[in-house]
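Chapter review: from sequence to fold.
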Amino acid sequence: MPTASRKALDLLYDGAAALAALFMLLLLAAVLSSILGREFHFMIPGTDAYAGYFMAASAFLALAHTLRRGEHIRVSLVLSLLPQPWRKRMEIWAGMVSVVLGALLAIFSVRLVMQSLSYNDISTSNDATPLWIPQLSMAIGTVIFFIALLHDLVDTISGKKLASESTAYHE
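The token string follows.
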């Protein structure tokens, strides 16, 4: 993969991670305001719902960055027992399965947003937020995650790395 496109993808993953960090801070603010509200007898409607939305957004937007840094939990014991040619074949097979599953997750996440938008679906909590708004972060996160899975597969096939070698923990 050319260096410019690799840098653009890394920028995409880093941007999504920065957004995930922002949503983590918003989660902290929502939880703190809820705690302070109970302590000082005031209530901000929808705080609990928004804390959930912020938590989901931070998780989905961080997926690609976490994958590319080798921080996802992996079970590499079986791979470490295989001879090198078989290890690479298994890495490619696992990468292809991951890409298919990532594509399905992204497709269904985007479809969920589109359905919520077309049905004018709103939250059942007292905030009455249109659900497509918090679902959008899930859709964006899963699409970027799919791109990262594809990126990893291309790197594995081209011999730039084996996913089992990129993990933080080595046997």
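Two observations follow directly from the output. Confidence is low (pLDDT under 50) at residues 166-171. The longest helix spans residues 3-40.
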